[in-house]
Automatic annotation (TrEMBL):
It is found in: Cytoplasm. Belongs to the GTP-binding SRP family. SRP54 subfamily. The lineage of its organism: Bacteria, Bacillati, Actinomycetota, Actinomycetes, Micrococcales. GO terms for biological process: SRP-dependent cotranslational protein targeting to membrane. Involved in targeting and insertion of nascent membrane proteins into the cytoplasmic membrane. Binds to the hydrophobic signal sequence of the ribosome-nascent chain (RNC) as it emerges from the ribosomes. The SRP-RNC complex is then targeted to the cytoplasmic membrane where it interacts with the SRP receptor FtsY. GTP binds at residues 108-115, 193-197, 251-254. This is Signal recognition particle protein. The keyword Glycosyltransferase does not apply. Part of the signal recognition particle protein translocation system, which is composed of SRP and FtsY. Residues 272-285 form the SRP54-type proteins GTP-binding domain. It holds the Pfam family SRP54_N.
Length: 445
């Protein structure tokens, strides 16, 4: 994914520190130099890198590290803190108007992902019990209106588009009419999709600024393609000067590009990143959490997002029961089987697995992960007796052999499954009790 290479480089840097007791100034300098190179190679803006590494260096040479029990781990903690800071610090939620409708305007270059985002945002807001409406104010591109109508249909929301001959060519008028319409029809949120150009130009900016002035939006979201590299900063600044915006949406974070844009834009513009878009599907979208993103980049895992995704996919009653079983240590292989069967319904098992701590280290396995493994796992559990499923402790050698034969697998596979189950149960138990699971190889962070 986007930060793959950066993650690998940072992990390697930290690995060099591990096992060292005290850190000498030379150790710190070496580490900071590595971090600096890794960030620059990931296309992070030079000014941002300088400020970032300066702060990391000052802190790493200070008391908090020299007095720490585990200085290497303390350095990771500092890098984590500072990453959170450049990503914007606290999570910034979408702001709603006191008097509906809330108006959200989308701006950005053509191809940045505005129209797709409009659909994602609408679908997400509808799932949060809002009644959003989409507005086609992109009247430049011939099929932009149709594209928004298609997206709206997929999201299951109303799309307001100009009737031929009525306001065509005048996006300001369309946007104003749309807001009137939304008030009448009790839509509490209006999402205005505006025209983009391939490059920044004065006409584009003026049009967006005119719409902004006319509809006085509660949020102006600048959609930024995370794959455009160093250009991201210039583009963001041009939009800030030309229209200004209240928040940023990073799109295409699923790409393989270096993604430094994502790490620069909040610092450079002083505007928070509010959402992240991670694919072409309408569900590939999430509110942006600086702390979780930092954890993912440092491969510390993102347990919270993992749990949230799981909760969205399981029904709530089920999720509550499972959490209780984890907490009370009564989660069995039978429950595990039920969960696996649920997992099959989940869109992207891989993306869920990739949120686990140390996931980058398991990348090979993740890449090789396929559904047939799920099927084998199911077969193994189904070859167990009810007692074995409920009390895996009774699984001695001869039982394991019988199960392997019964399921057409090997004892090694049976062992691996039982181990995995025990580890998962242990980790989930910690999480269910409000604890932080240990990061493999690093100890608790
Ligand atoms: P617009 O011109 O800003 O409205 O951009 P579109 O919404 O039309 O998106 C341009 C292209 O990028 C389309 O092919 C989308 O499917 C694709 N796209 C949008 N968001 C994402 C994303 O988060 N990930 C990926 N991989 N593709 C995206």
């Amino acid at each position: 994914a986007t930060f793959g290479n950066l993650s690998d480089r940072l992990s390697a840097t930290f690995k060099n520190l591990r096992g060292k007791g005290k850190l000498s100034p030379a150790d710190v300098d070496g580490t900071v130099r590595e971090i600096r190179r890794a960030l620059l190679d990931a296309d992070v803006n030079l000014e941002v890198v300088k400020a970032f590494t300066g702060r990391v260096r000052d802190r790493a040479l200070g008391d908090e590290v020299s007095k720490a029990l585990n200085p290497a781990q303390q350095v990771v903690q500092i890098v984590n803190d500072e990453l959170i800071t450049i990503l914007g610090g606290q999570q910034r939620r979408l702001q709603f108007a006191k008097n509906p409708p809330t108006v959200i305007m989308l701006v950005g270059l053509q191809g940045a992902g505005k129209t797709t985002l409009a659909g994602k945002l609408a679908k997400w807001l509808a799932s949060e019990n809002h009644t959003p409406m989409l507005v086609a104010a992109d009247l430049q591109r011939p099929n932009a209106v149709t594209q928004l109508q298609v997206v709206g249909a997929h999201a299951g929301v109303t799309v307001f588009a100009p009737e031929p001959g009525n306001g065509v060519g005048n996006p300001v008028r369309v946007a104003k009419d749309a807001i009137k319409y939304a008030k009448d029809k009790q839509h509490d949120i209006v999402i205005v999709d505006t025209a983009g150009r391939l490059g920044v130009d004065a006409e584009l900016m003026r049009q967006a600024a005119d719409i902004r002035k006319a509809v006085d939006p509660d949020e102006v979201l600048f959609v930024l393609d995370a794959m455009i590299g160093q250009d991201a900063v210039t583009t963001a600044k041009a939009f800030q000067d030309g229209v200004d915006f209240t928040g940023v949406v990073l799109s295409k974070l699923d790409g393989d590009a270096r993604g430094g844009a994502a790490l620069s834009v909040a610092s450079v513009t002083g505007r928070p990143i509010i959402f992240a878009s991670t694919g072409e599907g309408l569900d590939d979208f999430e509110p942006f959490h600086p702390d979780r993103m930092a954890s993912r980049i440092l491969d510390l895992g993102d347990i919270l997002s993992l749990i949230e995704q799981a909760q969205k996919n399981f029904d709530e009653e089920e999720a509550r029961k499972v959490a209780e079983k984890f907490a009370t240590d009564t989660f069995t292989l039978e429950d595990f089987l039920a969960q696996m069967q649920q997992l099959k319904n989940m869109g992207s098992i891989k993306s869920m697995l990739s949120m686990l701590p140390g996931a980058r280290g398991m990348r090979q396995q993740l890449d090789n992960f396929d559904e047939s493994e799920l099927t084998r796992t199911e077969a193994i559990i189904q070859s167990m007796t009810i007692q074995e499923r409920r009390q895996p402790k009774v699984l001695n050698g001869s039982r394991r052999l019988r199960i392997a034969r019964g399921s057409g697998t090997t004892v090694t596979e049976v062992n691996a499954l039982v181990n995995r189950f025990e580890q998962a149960a242990k980790m989930m138990k910690t999480v269910a009790k409000g604890g932080v699971p240990q990061v493999p190889g690093m100890g608790p962070i």
